[in-house]
Specification:
Blueprint lengths: L11 E8 L3 E2 L8 H15 L9 E5 L6 H8 L6 E5 L7 H14 L5 E7 L17 H4 L7 H16 L3 H15 L14 H5 L3 E3 L2 E2 L7 E11 H4 L7 E8 L17 H4 L5 H11 L8 E4 L4 H10 L8 H6 L17 H4 L6 H12 L11 E5 L3 E7 L1
Parallel strand pairs: 3-4, 3-5, 10-11
Antiparallel strand pairs: 1-8, 1-9, 2-8, 5-8, 6-7, 9-12, 11-12
Helix pairs in contact: 1-2, 6-11
């Protein structure tokens, strides 16, 4: 977790956001994954009112192939002083990359760090395709657990069974995200409405995960620029404070299919993240009751429910009823979530587009803006961040 800064002026903040267009997997053929990453970083620097050559740090995650020396050469960065990558399959390290950028600027290792993620799956690797897990193929592949839905379905099934979760409750995650996407011109599914009957009759992918429980597969890139509040005063754009950011998981989370099947039983059916949540709330000096909106990693719907519990918005096993009561809906709910449409309906850029939306909420510029929002949670079971309006 990011350490306590030595002075107010050294606290980290986000001063720029940038994106490319988002398409379905294979939709971008005229630009490389590296070109998309560079475009997103350049757009974020422009948004910050910063010359791109002032960026002297890069932070990404999950085996990003847009390696720093190629990014430096392509962007023409004269002084790259810091480059880091957070571990984590898929987007497990998405918010950890923000934590590492914050640590860099607070410590003086870099002045302006670009956090980025780029995907061009039509040209390179398809993340949703079956593949062997290197450290445990003999335990997983014979049982067909060679792609994310199959690896994670047992957790969802256990959670559903133990707490009596109903499909109509889970549907709230998908339906709410699709409604938010309809207001977002950047969302891939902005013109594709979804209703409860369509959700309930969609094909089963890996029981209990139906088609609309699963995120999209997309091409595109996005980026953030992180610096200190002191340096931000010299820039023209709006400032969003990073109140806390970090990564971590309960014991046993790090082995198995997507790190999912060897934790203690009480954590297996809870999705992890409780320890991380408590640490970050303590650092930010807030509790879940202070959060106005949340962008929760929605690779699969059931894990949004688990994260709502892990981050303290309701008790263990209560998230089904919590969402059924309309609490996550914009604009009437107590905690509107995934207000851009999330991974299910905007795009799946492995979590970082959720952070971009969190910044928009704190700026007051979201297409599903939460009125008077001052605190936004970015949540995943293994990394998270808390943003605050400056």
């Amino acid at each position: 977790m990011v350490g306590e800064p030595t002075s107010v002026g050294s606290r980290a903040c986000i001063v720029g956001i940038g994106e490319t267009d988002y398409t379905r997997r294979g939709g971008i053929a005229d630009r490389s994954e590296l070109a998309l990453a560079c475009a997103a970083v350049a757009n974020a620097a422009k948004d910050a009112g910063l010359d791109v050559n002032e960026i002297d740090g890069l932070s990404s995650y999950a085996n990003d192939e847009s390696v720093p020396w190629l990014m430096q050469e392509s962007l023409g960065l004269p002084k790259l002083r810091y480059a880091t990558m957070a571990w984590g399959g898929g987007g497990g390290g998405c918010f950890a990359a923000i934590a590492q950028a914050a640590a860099a600027v607070e410590s003086g290792a870099a002045n302006y760090v670009a956090v980025f993620r780029s995907l061009c799956q039509g040209q390179r690797k398809r993340f949703g395709q079956g593949y062997g897990v290197p450290h445990s193929p003999g335990f997983l592949d014979p049982f067909g657990m060679f792609a994310p839905p199959f690896m994670l379905a047992p957790l969802a099934q256990r959670y559903k069974h133990d707490y009596g979760i109903q499909e109509e409750q889970v549907a709230e995650i998908a339906l709410s995200g699709r409604a938010n996407a309809a207001r977002n011109p950047r969302a891939v599914f902005k013109d594709r409405p979804l209703d409860l009957d369509t959700y309930l009759t969609s094909r089963m992918v890996a029981d209990p995960l139906r088609l609309y429980d699963c995120c999209q597969e997309n091409d595109g890139a996005c980026a953030l620029v992180v610096t200190t509040e002191e340096r931000a005063r010299d820039l023209s754009g709006p400032v969003v404070r990073i109140l806390a950011a970090g990564q971590g998981a309960e014991p046993g989370w790090g082995s198995g299919g997507l790190g999912s099947h060897n934790m203690p039983e009480e954590d297996y059916k809870a999705g992890g993240g409780r320890t991380l949540a408590n640490r970050l709330y303590a650092k930010a000096g807030i509790g879940p009751e202070d959060v106005d909106t949340a962008q929760i990693y929605d690779h699969f719907t059931y894990f949004v429910l688990m994260n709502l519990e892990s981050f303290g918005f309701c008790g263990l096993g209560e998230a089904g009823a919590y969402v059924a009561d309309g609490n996550i809906r914009w604009s009437t709910g107590k905690l509107p979530i995934n207000t851009s449409g999330g991974h299910l309906s905007e795009a799946y850029i492995h979590g970082l587009n959720l952070a971009v939306e969190g910044v928009r909420q704190m700026r007051g510029t979201s297409t599903s803006q939460v009125a008077d929002a001052e605190i936004c949670l970015l949540a995943n079971s293994s990394s998270a961040a808390i943003l605050g309006r400056a």
